[in-house]
Design goal:
The protein is an alpha+beta fold. It has a single domain, classed as 3-Layer(aba) Sandwich (VC0467-like). It has 5 helices and 10 strands, in the order ββββαββββαβαβαα.
Amino acid sequence: MNLKNHFVIAMPTLNDPLFHRSVVYICEHNRDGAMGIIINKPLVELTIQTVLSRLDITPFKACAELEQPVFNGGPLAEEQGFILHTPQTGFSSSIAVSDEIMITTSLDVLKSIGSNMQPKELFVSLGYASWGNMQLENEIVNNDWLVTQLNSDIIFNCPIEDRWQKAAQTLGINIETISTFMGKA
C-alpha cells in the first residue's frame, strides 16, 4: 500500500517525545522509504509573522494567517521550512502531493502572504519526518501507527489540540479509549 497522501496517527503506546500523540501527513512514500510532516506539534511562541520578520519579508497586508503557529514538522532539516497549502501555481519549488495539497520549500510562497497570489490555506512547519525502506511499514505492523486517508480539513481547519482525536475518528476510533494491549490472531 502506498501511504502517500495519508495520515499516520501515533498509537497511545508510542512514547517517543516528538511522535507521542502525533499525526503525520505522508508527502512521499516509495521503495526508498517515506517522508512526512507532523501536523499537530506547534513550536512554542513561533508564528508565521515571526518567521516573516526573521526573513525580512513584509506581508502585502495584515491577515489572519500571520498569527498562525509554525509547527515542528519533524526531527530532520529543522531549519528548513515546509509549507503545505491548497493548490496554487507560480511558486518555484512546489510539488503536488494530491489534488488537494501541495508542498513548497521556497520563500516565494511566504512572500505571497496577504496578496492575491496567496494559497487559500497554508500550513508552515520547520523540519520533516523520514523513514527508511520498509521502516514505516514495520512500525505499522508493530502497532505504532494507525493509517487513514487524508482529510485536509484536519490540517487546515481543525483546532491543533483536536487533530490527533479527529484523525483517528475518521477510522471510527476513539483513540482515547483504545486498548494498549496487542493480540495475535
